[in-house]
Amino acid sequence: MILSIFVAVGLILVLSLMTLTGLTAPAQASLLPYRITTIPIESCACVDGFPGGVGVNTKTHMIYVTHVLTNTVSVINGSTNMVVSTVGVGSIPAGIAVNSNTNEIYVTNNNGTNVTVIDGATNTVTKTIPTGEHPEFVVLNPNTNKIYVLSTFGSSMGISVIDGKTNTVTSKISFNVFAVDGIGMVIPIKKLA
């Protein structure tokens, strides 16, 4: 069985349950049976600016998308799939994390030295938190209201720990190795004895 999915503008074509039969000789193979299913896409939130990171507020159903080329974040209503606001942030916004409990959005500005905080109720910037060079990835713990920002290179390479109550950096975990990709997968290099 072969299952293939083809994406086209406005619809998805799914070719399913294609079974190869008559395999006594390679030239006699045929594709039977086959069925084409069309699934319409009713609405689309169209955004520009090379979308990068995406975050979702599970309580308000708002979706936040960073745009690397326009230095903005699109706010999309997840119920209607419509863009309801565009928020200007720092240079080359990369990572994004949403705290559904506090309705705050944290955006790393990779070409800068900070994280932008957006109030999800008003879709406005409330604070810019200095973190050091090239913050790229961000995750948060909604239970402790701690935000972890990974700077992947430069003199600030490591993790900045932000207290979500005060939106200030409370500690820094430095690395002496290049943090390549992702905040949950940093493995220090040790010399084996």
SS strand fraction = over 45%
Q: What is the helix/strand order?
A: EEEEEEEEEEEEEEEEE
Determine and state the CATH class of the largest domain: Mainly Beta
Largest sheet: 4 strands, antiparallel
CATH architectural designation of the largest domain:
7 Propeller
Count every beta strand, where a strand is a DSSP E run of 2 or more residues. 17
CATH topology of the largest domain: Methylamine Dehydrogenase, Chain H
Could you estimate the helical fraction of the residues in percent? under 10%
Strand order of the largest sheet: 6-7-8-9
Class from helix and strand fractions: mainly beta
Q: In whole angstroms, how far apart are the ends?
A: 51 Å
User: How would you describe the shape?
Assistant: globular
Describe this structure in words.
This protein is an all-beta fold. The protein folds into two domains: 2-40, no CATH class; 51-174, Methylamine Dehydrogenase, Chain H, CATH 2.130.10. 0% of the residues lie in helices and 53% in strands. It contains no helices and 17 strands. It has strands at residues 2-8, 11-18, 20-21, 30-31, 35-40, 51-57, 62-67, 72-77, 82-88, 93-99, 104-109, 114-119, 124-130, 135-141, 146-151, 158-163, 168-174. The strands form five sheets. Strands 6-7-8-9 form a four-stranded antiparallel sheet, with no helix packed on it. A hairpin with a 4-residue loop joins β10 (93-99) and β11 (104-109). The chain is globular and about 45 Å long. The N and C termini lie far apart (51 Å). The model is unreliable at 1-32 and 185-193 (pLDDT under 50).
